[in-house]
Design brief:
- It is built from eleven helices and twelve strands.
- By secondary structure, the protein is α/β, with parallel strands linked by helices.
- The strands form five sheets. The chain has a three-stranded parallel beta sheet with strand order 1-2-3, covered by helices on one side. A three-stranded antiparallel beta sheet has the order 4-5-8.
- The chain is globular, with a radius of gyration of 20 Å.
Length: about 300
C-alpha cells in the first residue's frame, strides 16, 4: 500500500441515500486508485438523532454496493480518548444557547456560522458547575481562539480557502458532552489518531475545516489534507432529503435494483462514464480521476431507477 489513508465516516442518524453514497464512492475510489488504505469510522455520537439499527444497515448497504475497508472504528467506544484530547486543549464550558449567541451578534449573519464573543470565558470553574447553571440544557465546550488567528489551506477540489477564525467565529464549540465527544473535536482527533492523510467529504462540511485545522495545530500536529466535493441536491438546491423522494439504498435494494445500476449512476455523475451503464466499484478504480468530477452539484429532479430498469 502507498502512504495514503482515507476514511468513510457514516452517521447512524438516518439511512444511506444516493447523496452520501456518491460522496463515499469518491472517497473510496480516491484511496484505492492511489493504492491507499481505507478506514471505516461510524460517527455515532449524535445520540438524540441516532436511529436504532441504522449503523448496521449502513455497513450492510455499503458492503452490498462493493465497498471494503481495512480498519473499523466506532466513535461511541472512544470516550476515554476524547477526554484525553480535551484535556490538551484550551477549552471552557459555555451555557449560552443559540438564541443567546444570535442576540449577541454585532452584525447580520448568514448560514450556520455565528460569531461568539467569549461570554462564558472564565465564568465557570468546571463542567459540572456550568451544567448546574443551565439545567436541564447541556453546556458545550468551547475552544478559546487566540487573537488574529487565520487559517488558510488548499483544498484538493474546492481550491484555496482562508478564514480569520478570531473575527468570524470567535470561540467555537467543540462538543456538547462532558468528555468532549462531539463532532468537531472527535472527527479531528480521530483523523489524527488514525493516520488519515486526506479527508474526502461533501462540500457542506467545508466551513467546519478551518476550526478542525486549528484544533490539530493546537495539539501540535499537522492536519490531513482536505477534498470537499459537491453534493447531490434536489430541484430546490438543498441537499438530498425525504422531501425529494425516497433515494435510500435500502429502498432500491427492496425494489430489486442491482448494486451495479447504482454504481453506474454514480460513475456517470462523476464523469467516469459517458452513460449510466452498470458498473462495479472495483471496476472504476483504474479510471478514477478527481479532475473528471464536475464542480456543480448533482441535481436530482426524479428518482433514478424508479421505473424498474434494473
Amino acid at each position: 500500500m502507498s502512504g495514503y489513508v482515507g476514511r468513510l465516516a457514516p452517521s447512524p442518524t438516518g439511512a444511506l441515500h444516493l447523496g452520501n453514497v456518491r460522496t463515499f464512492a469518491i472517497a473510496w475510489l480516491r484511496a484505492r486508485s492511489l493504492g491507499g488504505k481505507m478506514i471505516m469510522r461510524m460517527e455515532d455520537l449524535d445520540h438524540p438523532r441516532d436511529k436504532p439499527g441504522a449503523a448496521a444497515q449502513a455497513i450492510d448497504d455499503l458492503r452490498w454496493l462493493g465497498f471494503d475497508w481495512d480498519e473499523e472504528f466506532v466513535q461511541s467506544e472512544r470516550h476515554p480518548f476524547y477526554r484525553s484530547v480535551l484535556a490538551q486543549l484550551d477549552a471552557y464550558p459555555c451555557v449560552c444557547s443559540r438564541r443567546d449567541v444570535e442576540s449577541a451578534q454585532s452584525a447580520p449573519h448568514s448560514g450556520e456560522q455565528l460569531f461568539y464573543p467569549g461570554t462564558c470565558r472564565g465564568r465557570f470553574r468546571s463542567w459540572e458547575e456550568a451544567a448546574e447553571a443551565c439545567a436541564p440544557r447541556t453546556p458545550c465546550w468551547r475552544f478559546r481562539v487566540p487573537p488574529d488567528t487565520t487559517i488558510d489551506f488548499d483544498d484538493a477540489f474546492a481550491g484555496h480557502v482562508a478564514q480569520d477564525i478570531s473575527a468570524t467565529l470567535g470561540d467555537f464549540p467543540l462538543a456538547r458532552d462532558p468528555d468532549g465527544a462531539g463532532y468537531t473535536l472527535a472527527a479531528t482527533a480521530d483523523d489524527l489518531d488514525m493516520g488519515v492523510t486526506e479527508v474526502v467529504r461533501g462540500d457542506d462540511l467545508l466551513p467546519a475545516t478551518p476550526p478542525q485545522i486549528l484544533i490539530a495545530r493546537a495539539l501540535g500536529r499537522e492536519p490531513p489534507s482536505y477534498c470537499h466535493v459537491p453534493l447531490v441536491v434536489g430541484p430546490d438546491g438543498r441537499r438530498l432529503a425525504k422531501r425529494h423522494g425516497d433515494t435510500r439504498i435500502a429502498a432500491f435494494r427492496a425494489a430489486g435494483v442491482s448494486p451495479e445500476r447504482i454504481i453506474g449512476w454514480i460513475a456517470y455523475t462523476c464523469g467516469l462514464s459517458a452513460t449510466d451503464e452498470p458498473a462495479s466499484l472495483a471496476g472504476l478504480v483504474g479510471r478514477f480521476s478527481l479532475a473528471a468530477i464536475p464542480h456543480a452539484a448533482v441535481v436530482i429532479s426524479s428518482i433514478p431507477f424508479a421505473r424498474g430498469n434494473h
